[in-house]
Design a protein that fits this description.
Length: 400
């Protein structure tokens, strides 16, 4: 699947830079076109002449190639590539990428890249384990970058631990699998709801919840990456979409999300209901801000909102799939199974607020997938990886 793919290979100042030669040879052997962008520190470990001989392309390192006005366009590079791979990626480069410090050609190219980005860290075990490095990696994951975890082994310091860059053949396999997966949902139309809903009390107050929308947005990106045309119905969140195959509809209230879902689902192959929709809304909404000075106490009369999952379950056709989510605080299994049956779902994703690092506002999640055949549990993972697990299960259901 790498044949004809255009790959930017970023090389930074690590002893593992020599492995870039094997990565280049492996990528080219599979038919890819490779353009190397190397940092000044990277050139201390491997020469541009060697890299240019392997790629048959000039190696890019500086903004200006000559002193006659000729310059290297990081924007053009970002548009050219089908993928960008930084291998090895040092702690310094990872920190700059996470914080947008564009002081070299590699970082400016990364910031301009439209294609998926893969990062293969390489550093000493204590540097890799340091909280600042781990935080920067979490930031990069939250941007949608894919981290190729380092291996455990002997390092340049002769210590043994995690921090050794993954072997070239495994890095190439990750890219190959990525492009192989990109056609799995080709031609499918998938509707996804994400985020919270806000139910107005008056012009400045509302009933809401803590949902960040991160899980739903990760699912949308994963479906689009695998070839689907995605309609993302998003509640009020600050997140942005990246993939061009995602059509976003912004809503605020449960009623608006219900109406959008009712419109979109009949023409969709799959509906994934990841949003944390309010179950109740105020019966009346004040036209003006309610003043505390005029009210000794405030009583809100609430009424149930439209049940989006149940309504879509009633109109679901035999050739459609409907996936629900259950965020529970008690009796998790029983509540999830009940929701699966009542709302005519094909499978349900369960997570519990009793699990540390799972649920609202976290970049990680811990889930179980429950269908009529049983339950499969997954460990705590970044939400991008959780999205992969969910979509893998979806594809298995679609296939069989």
């Amino acid at each position: 699947m790498l044949k004809g793919k255009k790959i930017i290979l970023g090389i930074t100042g690590s002893i593992a830079a020599y492995k870039a030669c094997y990565i280049i040879r492996g990528l080219i052997k599979q038919g890819a076109e490779v353009q190397v962008v190397i940092t000044p520190a990277g050139k201390e470990f491997i020469t541009p002449i060697t890299l240019s001989a392997l790629t048959s392309k000039p190696v890019i390192s500086e903004f200006f190639a000559q002193r006659d006005g000729t310059w290297n366009s990081h924007v053009d590079l970002g548009l050219w590539a089908d993928a960008m791979l930084i291998a090895p990626a040092t702690a310094s480069t990872i920190g700059k990428m996470a914080n947008g410090i564009a002081d070299n050609m590699l970082i400016t190219t990364y910031l301009s890249a439209k294609a998926p980005v893969f990062i293969a860290p390489a550093m000493d075990l204590d540097m890799y384990a340091h909280p600042s490095t781990q935080k920067n990696l979490d930031i990069l994951r939250s941007y949608g970058n894919r981290i190729i975890e380092p291996a455990t082994g002997e390092l340049a310091s002769h210590l043994v631990g995690k921090g050794r860059m993954e072997e070239p053949e495994n890095i190439i396999r990750v890219l190959d699998e990525f492009f192989s997966a990109s056609a799995e949902l080709q031609g499918r139309k998938i509707m996804i709801t994400a985020g919270p809903t806000y139910e107005k009390i008056d012009p400045v107050r509302f009933i809401g919840n803590y949902s960040s929308g991160k899980m739903g947005f990760a699912l949308a990106e994963e479906c689009a990456r695998r070839g689907a045309e995605v309609t993302l119905i998003a509640g009020p969140v600050q997140l942005k979409t990246q993939h061009s195959r995602i059509h976003r509809i912004d809503v605020e209230s449960a009623q608006e999300m219900y109406e959008a879902a009712q419109t979109c689902f009949p023409t969709s192959d799959v509906g994934i209901l990841c949003a944390a929709v309010a179950d109740f809304r105020p019966e009346t909404v004040a036209g003006k801000k309610i003043k505390r000075e005029k009210e000794e106490e405030l009583t809100l009369h609430l009424q149930a909102t439209q049940d989006i999952a149940a309504s879509l379950g009633k109109i679901k056709e035999d050739n459609q799939l409907l996936v629900g989510f259950a965020l529970e605080t008690n009796d998790e299994q029983q509540n999830a199974e009940g929701k699966l049956e009542r709302k005519n779902l094909d499978f349900i994703v369960l997570n519990s607020l009793n699990d540390a690092g799972a649920g609202f506002r976290h970049d990680t999640n811990k889930i179980s997938i429950i269908d009529r055949k049983g339950r499969e549990d997954y460990p705590l993972k970044p939400k991008q990886e959780v999205a992969q697990d969910i979509i893998n299960h979806l594809i298995a259901v679609l296939t069989h």
